[in-house]
Design brief:
Layout (H helix, E strand, L loop, with lengths): L4 E4 L4 H12 L5 E4 L7 H11 L26 H10 L8 E4 L2 E4 L18 E2 L5 E3 L10
Parallel strand pairs: 1-2
Antiparallel strand pairs: 1-3, 3-4, 5-6
């Protein structure tokens, strides 16, 4: 079993960059394509609890049915928001990464660096050309 799990959407650049940063540390994570294999209620609740964030903070608005489902209604309960994410997995923001050091929504992708158990093994540049890790495996200032 992998020590690192990523809830991943291969169509998302942030998710792809996060996965690449994990691999740049020498780890091969368990990759869960959550749109094909969405987490159940209990797992989703555990992830949110481990991140110590409100349920609403794990919801993606852009490119989802968030607005049409009226999920911007602040009167909705956490259970109602969870129900929506379970019915429409695209509403789950990504990528969520679980490591022995913590669980985090990795937006931006370099947020994963704070919870990776092993250092980066070489240079890394994000898909958009932003340099994040130098040749010595060190985080570039501002990244």
């Amino acid at each position: 079993m992998a020590d690192i799990t990523i809830y991943h959407n291969p169509q998302c650049g942030t998710s792809r960059n996060t996965l690449a940063l994990i691999r740049n540390s020498g780890a091969e994570p368990e990759v869960i394509e959550y749109l094909k294999h969405p987490p159940g209620r209990e797992t989703l609740q555990q992830l949110i609890a481990a991140m110590n964030v409100p349920v609403r903070d794990v919801m993606r608005q852009k490119g989802t049915p968030y607005a049409e489902l009226g999920l911007d209604n602040l009167a909705l309960t956490d259970d109602q928001l969870l129900d929506a994410m379970l019915a429409h997995p695209i509403l789950m923001n990504r990528p969520i990464v679980v490591t022995p050091l913590g669980t985090r929504l990795c937006r931006p992708s370099e947020a994963v660096l704070d919870i990776l158990p092993a250092p980066q093994q070489g240079a890394f540049t994000k898909e958009d050309g932003e340099r994040v890790i130098n040749e010595k495996g060190e985080r570039v200032a501002g990244a």
